[in-house]
Amino acid sequence: MRALLSVSDKTGLIPLAKGLADRGWELVSTGGTAKALSAAGLEVIGISDVTGFPEMMDGRVKTLHPKVHGGILARRHRPDDLASMEAHGIRPIDLVVVNLYPFAKAAANPDLPFDSLVEEIDIGGPSLVRAAAKNFHDVLVLVEPSDYDRVLQGLDTPGGPPLSLRFDLARKAIAHTAAYDRTIATTLAGVTVDDAAGSFARSRGTGLPAHWSPDLTKIRDLRYGENPHQPAAWYREHDRGFGGAIVHQGKELSFTNLLDLDAAARIVREFTEPAAVVIKHTNPCGAASGSSVAEAYVRARDADALSAFGGIVGLNRPIDLETARALTSTFIEAVIAPAVDDRDDVRAALAAKANLRVVTASFDDNGGWDARTILGAWLVQAPDRVTEATEAWPGADGPRVVTRRQPTAEEWTALRFAWRICAHVKSNTVIFTGPDATLAVGAGQMSRVDAVKAAVMKGGDRLRGSVVASDAFFPFRDGVDAIAAAGATAVVQPGGSVKDAEVIAAADEHGLTMIFTGRRHFRH
Cα separation of 50 and 54, whole Å? Predict the structure, then answer.
């Protein structure tokens, strides 16, 4: 039996090769893979010894040869195929182990020259993989190190690897090459050509590609979607964010749990200081920062304790013992954080609420686009971040004061806090906060005045001396009048209404201070 090994990702390569050699397999390999196998003390036949040709053109041509592809594609049950092999001195290849040039990694580097990017397009690898997958009855194909052990186990079973394993590996191999080609096509769609200069320019992420084909792998089926009659599943595009999430404990996650966890993560990642949020139906019912994440959580929970019951929690720091005890002191459905402290007492504290879903994930940008489906089409956009509030206010590039009264130092702090939360609340939204905690959230209303009224109904007298953030401009002065009546003293909004002068005059009339950010943050 003969195996061809040619891999860029050498994870698990040596144990696999040793396992094959111990079972009497002959190893054929190329380039760097052959060197790695030889260095491990394994006997290897170079691909040039099989083809009779050297690897040439900087490795562009090495496996594209009938003695390779004939050995893979020959159907063992066809006498004519076997006769052709014999006539041309072709030996069968029974296992192909290939993963492809790391094109996606190269494409992620915007500074990589276009010509260097092109060199990362694998040619021979996909050809080997597709050939082996096509002839899966006779040839095993491996594209992922995670499958190495089960193939070795399959070789030891009576009759060899079952047909179901062979076909599963073939399907995975075809999906692997399809995803690879989609990545190339999507990357090249963002390249522009200057015919006069004979040059190519790669997109820096500011434009949307003419073609976009996300490659999604199912993580798991969900119990159901938003409602019990809707089937649902959780997919990943890559291993960042929720693509690499770890579920540590708790009941099975639902579709709506994941939507709420995402909403929670998006809010707390806006903060560098310890921060926490409690989410209900993708909106925050309470958010806060603090000297510790435990303090931030308690203050976020108590901002609207009634609504926080059964909520989803987001934290931007690892869960420590104090936080674990706070989380389990009341009923919440799930929590997401960057990590959980690896201590027995922390695990035990969380395990006291066995149904509590504890999820960890990176809060990095997803490295791609935000996408939603509509009937028969997709909408794709760049992710929204509150970059204008990254630095402390006031600042050289921060928002501008448009009223006669300037904000106090405490109001500046509170306005920046409010703005970072407000950007992630469903529109129309108006929220009231202090310097480091929400007081009332008016979310998803059909008018901005209604958003104020909803918040005032929640906050009552607590809103005296608060600040306000509005995700979009006030079209009329009535919203400002309602804010002043509630007792707020400062407002942050994008500005840009044809009635800005009227709105500013109303703020001056009430003695409010108002700042314009010049940037809207709708969230539908």
Answer: 10
DSSP 183-239: HHHHHHHTEEEETTTTEEEE--SSS--S------EEEEEES-SSSTTS-EEEEESSS
Q: List Cβ<8 Å contacts ≥24 apart for 226-230.
A: 226/255, 226/256, 230/255
Of the candidates 458, 499, 462, 507, which has an alpha carbon nearest to the alpha carbon of residue 481?
507
Tokens matching residue 297: 């959580």
Cβ-contact 257, 357 below 8 angstroms: yes
* CA distances for 104 relative to 9, 171, 176, 183, 187, angstroms: 13, 21, 12, 7, 9
| Cβ-contact 508, 485 below 8 angstroms | no
Q: CA 39 to CA 34: how far, in whole Å? A: 8
pLDDT for 118: 84
Rounded distance between C-alpha atoms, residue 519 and residue 495, angstroms: 8
Exposure of 244 by Cβ count < 10 A (0-12 exposed, 13-18 middle, 19+ buried)? middle
Q: Which residues contact 177 (CB under 8 A, 6 or more apart)?
A: 100, 126, 129, 130
DSSP 294-342: HHHHHHHHHTTHHHHTTEEEEESS-B-HHHHHHHTTS-EEEEEES-B--
152, 16 in Cβ contact below 8 A? yes
**Is the peptide bond prior to 284 cis by the omega test (within 30 degrees of 0)?**
no
Q: How many residues does the chain have?
A: 524
Q: Which two tokens stand for residue 226?
A: 């938003």
Does 391 have pLDDT greater than 70? Answer: yes
Distance of CA 278 to the CA centre of its chain: 21
Task: Give the residue numbers annotated as catalytic, written as ranges.
Answer: 134, 281
Question: Average per-residue pLDDT in the chain?
Answer: 91
Among 142, 200, 146, residue whose Cα is nearest residue 25 = 142
Among candidate residues 505, 480, 482, the one with its CA nearest the CA of residue 493: 480
* SS3 label, residue 377: strand
Condensed to tens digits (0 to 9), the pLDDT of residues 80-89 reads 888 988 898 8
pLDDT tens, residue by residue, 314-367: 999 999 999 999 999 999 999 999 999 999 999 999 999 999 999 999 987 655
pLDDT tens-digit series, residues 47-78: 888 877 777 677 677 677 888 888 899 998 98
Phi then psi for residue 125, to 5 deg, are -60, -55
Does residue 362 contact residue 262 with C-beta atoms inside 8 Å?
no
Contact 320, 294 (CB under 8 A): yes
Residue 205 binned pLDDT confidence (cut-offs 50, 70, 90): low
Q: What is the 3-state secondary structure (H, E, C) of 381-427?
A: ECCCCCHHHCCCCCCCCCCEECCCCCCCHHHHHHHHHHHHHHCCCCC
Asked if 74 contacts 82 with a C-beta cutoff of 8 angstroms, the reply is yes
